Q: What sequence folds into this?
């Protein structure tokens, strides 16, 4: 099968997943009502509101979150040359958790909308912690990637401990826990616009730098011989990965396994070259997360299951199969 055919199948998978997400749900809105609402035909006002206000932004945001996390995972795995690298390893997850717990602590009785406070501080926390982690690239002598990886583990563990301590003192902790497990139920068109803009810019910059990413997978010495400034590349691509992951996390909370598993699937289907791997992973990740979210909101109505539970249930077996196949 040619690469073009594989891209076509991947696109059809993502579109099919989006269609399933739009037409299925716990509410009593049939496929016919959904179709009429989408095409502008006459339909009950309640059904139209469910489609346009709830399902459409939720599906769009799920597509964007899946794509952003997948591209971020591709970037980190290339930078660290570690197949198990993923966005949260570099402090994005712990930093976002710290920001959310601070929002719950500082804005509990404030007029600021809780969702806005959580989103802004989650983003600032994730980016701030990741910036501290990547500053260790300067101290990495001839192995800056190793320094960043170890710093991510150490700083992430420290920040996670601080956030857990704050969470333990909160009275309104259940909202933070809900966010920790992933939640797309409050998706809005404004969130879609924000993440869509970041994904478009970040994804384009990553794709333009695909040649440098290919060189980085050869090792730091190989990248140097190919003319790549390793520390500058760590800052640039690491910053893009953190920006994509942090923006996604700020919109829906912590969603694991997508940025870890999807790049592996992309490599098996499209090869290791980043010119094809980046868009392929974005498409596959988008479709996978929409399917996971559809399962999350339909398996246990009316409140649904946490999104992170479904992504873990889907991703863990895939990751185990990939590891076993690679070891055989």
A:
């Amino acid at each position: 099968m040619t690469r073009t055919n594989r891209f076509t199948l991947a696109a059809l998978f993502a579109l099919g997943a989006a269609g399933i997400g739009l037409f299925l749900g716990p509410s009593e809105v049939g496929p016919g009502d959904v179709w009429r609402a989408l095409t502008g035909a006459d339909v009950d006002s309640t059904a139209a509101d469910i489609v346009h206000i709830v399902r459409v932004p939720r599906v769009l945001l799920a597509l964007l979150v899946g794509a952003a996390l997948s591209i971020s995972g591709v970037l980190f795995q290339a930078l660290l040359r570690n197949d198990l690298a993923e966005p949260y390893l570099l402090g994005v997850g712990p930093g976002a958790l710290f920001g959310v717990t601070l929002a719950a602590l500082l804005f509990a009785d404030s007029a600021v909308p809780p969702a806005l406070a959580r989103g802004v501080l989650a983003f600032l926390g994730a980016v701030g912690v990741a910036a501290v982690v990547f500053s260790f690239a300067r101290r990495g002598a001839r192995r800056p990637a190793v320094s960043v990886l170890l710093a991510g583990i150490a700083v992430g563990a420290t920040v996670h401990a601080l956030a857990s301590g704050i969470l333990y003192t909160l009275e309104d902790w259940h909202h933070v826990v809900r966010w920790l497990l992933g939640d797309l139920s409050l998706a809005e068109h404004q969130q879609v616009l924000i993440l869509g803009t970041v994904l478009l810019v970040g994804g384009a910059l990553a794709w333009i730098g695909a040649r440098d990413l290919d060189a980085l997978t050869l090792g730091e010495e190989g990248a140097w011989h190919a003319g790549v400034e390793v520390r500058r590349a760590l800052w640039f691509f690491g910053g893009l990965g953190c920006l994509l992951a942090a923006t996604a996390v700020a919109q829906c909370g912590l969603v694991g396994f997508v940025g870890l598993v999807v790049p592996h699937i992309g490599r098996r289907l499209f090869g290791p070259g980043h010119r094809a791997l980046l868009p392929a992973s974005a498409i596959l990740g988008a479709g996978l997360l929409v399917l996971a979210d559809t399962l999350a909101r339909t398996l246990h109505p009316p409140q649904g299951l946490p999104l992170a539970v479904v992504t873990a249930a889907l991703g863990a077996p895939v990751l185990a199969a990939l590891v076993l196949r690679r070891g055989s």
